Amino acid sequence: MADLSISSNRSGLSRRAALRLAGAGTGGMLAATFGLVPTRAEAAGVGAAGAGAVVAGAAVVPSGVAGVRYVPRAGWGADESWRINRRTGQPWPVEFAPGQVITVHHTAIAVNDADPAASVRAIYRGHTKDRGWADIGYHLLIDNAGAVYEGRRSGADTVPVYEADGRAVTGAHVQGNNAGNIGVALMGDLRTRPPTPQARRSLALVLLALAGRHQLDPTGMATYINPTSGARRQIPTISGHRDWMGTACPGDALFALLPGLRRDVAVALGRPLPPLPPPSTVPPRPLVPPQPLVPPRSPVAPGAQSLLAAAP
Question: Which of the 8 DSSP states describes residue 162?
Fold first, then answer.
């Protein structure tokens, strides 16, 4: 396990852990840093188990640096036939682009903690069967126990997100700004409920690995360039979905944690932190001298005038 702990407000990423996590090369970054190594069953293929079957043991508890439990598509039971374009009968074309930014989401629906893989399959069905998308929209998903799930398929290798040359598969999580934008979704409704410590820890590690891989300044701004339209957008390098458009995603409770997560990742990567905002220059309001207490006027009951007059 990495020397990493979670406190109530900070993710506690250490520089030693960061250097080990972000030091892997192109393509194999996630596989090397998180120990995302498939089981023997996964490495041998899933043909015998049938399409969409959950391979026994494919949800790995690795011996990697961070000790993050990783579940590849076969492990959570992705039915690859759902990626077929119903009009052509062929798989939807897959596109890739250099990674530029990272966007954090919540799925906004309850997660089945007893069977989180079923929740991932439900999201997959919603994106493909209900919305007609080519695949699940997110690159990676994280459940309440901190397990990381492979989202959108990036190829036949065992490394999520990337193809062999290091470009990221284009997902479907920020309308009109998906190419080069890596989407990480915490499972659950985080409008008022903050993520679990396990989920927050895994999110911090995922952000650390991705920021290190793409040499992003975690607390800085990026000029995102849409490789298709050429449109430019100034955006935090680690953003929430609502930074892009009018949406409640990733939920108030998770969005409030992003500044701290950005700073933790920056510290772990040895990046300089932005200066804290200067003290307020608004002059203090002048003190108002205390006023004598005047009792409120109230109706007087008939016959009580004499009592009031006699009072000291």
Answer: B
pTM score above 0.85: no
CA of 31: how far to CAs of 43, 65, 91, 144, in Å?
Answer: 13, 10, 26, 21
Going by pLDDT thresholds of 50, 70 and 90, the confidence category of residue 185 is very high
Instruction: Report yes or no: 105 and 186 within 8 Å, Cβ to Cβ.
Output: yes
pLDDT in tens, 92-111: 889 999 999 999 999 999 99
Distance CA 95, CA 171 (A): 9
CB burial class (10 A; 0-12, 13-18, 19+) of residue 74?
buried
204 and 261 Cβ atoms separated by less than 8 Å: yes
pLDDT(203) > 60: yes
3-state SS, residue 201: helix
Give per-residue pLDDT as tens, 232-276: 999 999 999 999 999 999 999 999 999 999 998 998 888 878 776
Residue 6's contacts (CB-CB under 8 Å, 6 or more residues apart) are 12, 197, 200, 201
User: Would you call the peptide bond into 259 cis, given omega within 30 degrees of 0 as the criterion?
Assistant: no
pLDDT band for position 282 (50/70/90)?
low
Residue 203 to residue 141: CA distance in whole angstroms = 9
What does the alpha-carbon distance between residue 286 and residue 148 come to, in Å, rounded to a whole number? 55
CA separation, residue 267 to residues 182, 195, 219 (Å): 21, 22, 10
The whole-number average pLDDT for the span 13-33 is: 44
Closest of 73, 79, 63, 74 to residue 41, by C-alpha: 74
Burial profile 254-277: b = 16 or more Cβ within 10 angstroms, e = fewer = bbebbeebbbbbbbbbebeeeeee
Rounded CA separation 15/6 (Å): 15
How much helix, strand and coil, in percent to the nearest 5, is found in the chain?
Answer: 30, 15, 60
